[in-house]
Every structure is written in structure tokens, then in C-alpha cells.
Amino acid sequence: MSRELSTPGSGWPSTAIREEATKPLGRPGRVVLGVLLVFGVVVGAPSGFGLFWFVPYGGVGALLAVRRPQSSIGWILLALGLGFASINVPVSGTADDFAMGRIPVPTAILAVATSALGSVGFGLLALLALVLPSGRLPRGRWGIVLRSCLVPVAFVVGAGCFMPMINVNLWADGASTLVRNPAAIAPDLGLWQVITPDTTVLAVLVLLAVAVIALLVRFRTSTGVERQQLRWITAALGFVVAAVTTGFVLGSLIPPLGDTGLQWLGAVLAFPSVPVAIGVAVLRYRLYEIDRIISRVVGWAVISAILGAVFAGAIVALQAVLAPLTNSNTLAVAASTLVAATLFQPVRRRVQSAVDHRFNRSRYDAERIVAGLAGRLRDVTNLAAINGHVVDSVDRSLRPADIGIWVRGESS
Length: 412
Known about the structure:
- This protein is mainly alpha-helical.
- Helix content is 69%, strand content 6%.
- The chain contains 15 helices and four strands.
- The strands form two sheets. The chain has a two-stranded antiparallel sheet. A two-stranded antiparallel ribbon has the order 3-4.
- A hairpin with a 6-residue loop joins strand 1 (2-6) and strand 2 (13-20).
- Helix 3 (72-86) packs antiparallel against helix 5 (105-131).
- It is flat and about 85 Å long.
């Protein structure tokens, strides 16, 4: 069942009033997702900043990818997290090694990849602004304008991987250094007078600014819950654009700041605010119907803690009673395991019911409505009254766009 409306005149689908039947991410997808999360933590941990950025992007992205794998929002956030985790990975070698071509192939690939990650990251942020909150690009004239901006910027970013000089974070220098690109193509080509490291970053910054402006337009034309959702996201992306712009201006006006990196302090704080804002929109305004997965995570955490405490307590108690008789801990461990296994189902039912009551209220209310319907139908024999009770219960629990009841044997 799908019900979808658009913000008037905008061309963007409105997720605030969309009900869409989707399947959560399957087991193979979750395994791949888990591998990507571990990779991001391992790569981002040495630099510190990489992990600081990866945790919010990767965490919120993984949550959305599990619950709404068909939406691009979670996957874009996860890609941003992996990019931020990898962007500060230092590359071995010196500028002279790059100039002389004495760089192994794996090092050359790492250098080109980390050099491109900055521009790719800004581009993904712009794409995220364009597809929020529906997960799809807009239609109509806005869609034509934005797609016409995406194509040249994508070309500039892709071509930037083959320009003669790139910025690389070298082990030897401990900072970003302009070095000869080991993947350069036709270094004397006139195109490289236009596509440089600075112009590449400038192009994606312009795209990001256009995306934020488009988001502001949608925010002004939106209403209700969708307006509340977009308010958080627009504020976070506006913070990113303002912080990055301020960093470039301060670096140009006060050159000594470039040696300390203080001009980017605002950007360091701004980038993680984007997934935080999306997380607030998801949790507070039920943007992607994430209640079920949250209730399951909380429920299993509480169940594990309770059963773990019961298991440990039973081992300690039974050891004190049985050790003098058996001179062994094996029986105590086996008995504790049996106690924990016996309590699992009743504890799970009670804990999950309590957690659903708090975190997954829609399911709790739906189950209560269905139980009430079953009780009322026991005492009703009139067909019209039964139809009325069924329609009322379905409307209150599922909120469908249309409801119809077909009774066998009756004509249409």
C-alpha cells in the first residue's frame, strides 16, 4: 500500500504523509553493512577525527539502511561516514617520491582516492540535501535545474582524479601536500588550467550552496510535520555551508591560521550535525517509521542484561550450595544455563511489551485495538454492526487511504 502527496508546486514527494510498504534489509545485506561499519571504525580510529565523523554518519546511516534499504538516505550517510573515516588516512612516501614516480601501485591508488574524497564528500552532502526527505530527486523544473547542475560537477570531480597535481596527506609531512598525481593523464592538456584542486572544491561548494537553497525553498512551501522535519535538516546543512565558507575566508585573510588549522574548527563541529539533525527528524517526527527497529534494539538489550544478571547470580548461588557436594562448577553452570533458557520466553514477552509501549506505540495501540475488536465481535450478531466495528478498527490501527469490505454472496 502506498500513499504519496507532493509539496504544492515543488516537485518533491512529501515523506511526512507517505505510507509505503517496504522490506527491511535482509541478512546478507546486514552482513555487508556490518563489515562496512567495522571497516569504518578501524580506518577512522587512528586519526581520531575520522572516527569522530564516522560514528554519527555511519550510525544513523546504518539504522536507516536496515529499516529502509530502498531509500538512498541511509546509504548516502553511510558513504559519507566511510569517506570521512578514510579522508585523513596518511600516505607513505615523500613529495620527491611522487615527483620521481617511485610510488608502489597500492600507495598510488590510496593517494588518488584520499585526494578525491574531499570533493566527493561535499558532492554527497549536496546530493543528500537534494533527496531529503523522500530519498529521491525532485521532478518538474526543479528536477531539470538540479540535474543540470549535478552532471558538470560530477564530471569535474571525476576528471579531478587525473589532473597533474593533487593534495595528499603524507606521513612524512604530517599535513596535506601538493604532489604529482601518479594517475595523471596528459599533464600538458589545457583542461588542467581550469580543473585544479581549488576549482574542484569550489565547484562542489557551489553545488552544495544550490542544494541548500533548494532545501530552503522546500522548507518555505512545506507544512505540518514535514516542515518540522526539514527545519532540523536545513539548519544543519546551512551550518555546514557557513562553517566551510568561513574557513576559506579566514584562511585567505589570515594566512597564519592555515598552519594551525583553527579556521576549520567550525567545520569540524558542523559536519557531524547533519546526521544528528536527520536522526532527530527520524526519532522525533517518525520520518521513516523507525519505531520498530528502535524498540527491538532496546528490547534485546534489556533482555540480554536481565538474563545475563540471572545467569551470573544463579552461578554464584548454586556454586555456594553445590561446590561442597560436587567439588566442581560444571553442575552450577549447567543449572544456571537451564534457568536462563527457561526464563527467556516469558522475560522476552514482558520486556518487549513494555518497550513497545514506550518506543513502538503504534504497534502497541494496534494490538490493543485488534484485541478490543475480537472482544466486541463475540457479542455482536448484526452484520452492519460487525462491518462498522471492523472498519473503525482498521482505520484506527492502519490509517489506510481507502477501506472496503466485501461480503461473500452479496452483489457489488
